Amino acid sequence: MSQGIGARVPLPILKYDVFLSFRGEDTRQFFTTKLHAMLQQKGLATFIDNERLMRGDVISQGLLRAIEESLVSVVILSENYASSTWCLDELQKIIELRKEFGRAIFPVFYGVDPSEVRHQRGSFEVAFAKYEEVYKGNREKVRRWRDALADVANTSGWDSREYSHDAELIQTIVEAVWINLRPKIPSTIHMLQGVDTKVEDLDKEARIGLDKLYNTEIKCGCIIL
What we know:
The chain is of the alpha/beta class.
């Protein structure tokens, strides 16, 4: 059973290579959708929550479980990221898993300055001014969100403003994630239970700096490659 935010969890069985944390209204239209597709094409089982716009404000246990079951997380920090308590709860969980299990985090500062995230300035300041009022009786909750943002902002990542177009940034992210995950993918596959897996050698599709690429075909109702 998945544990709540802040609760120590046993080492979970891994189902996904990558978890995407993002603010749908900011980046879903192109950036996140394209990034998800490119990661999938690379053979990485990537979790994306396609139903978040249809639910309420309380993060679901299923979503927290998906974070636990992912090897790494890509966090897309955009202008309205902090205005979503879902995103902040996701980020808090992601940070906790890095501290407990060493899970890698790949931050993407999409149209925002890392310092705005680190110190909660600009749109992040506006969001937290609201939270300080709404959660007067739970200051600790707000503090944990602030700490999570500061933590992720101090993690090496990418600033979208340094790239001429999104496609270039997406390709850079995918290659970095692949290089990080490549040595771990075989062990991840063996952890999958009740899943038919097949690994094929795809030398012909090797990219710059990579001498071999593995494509995993996973037949499961919740993972589609």
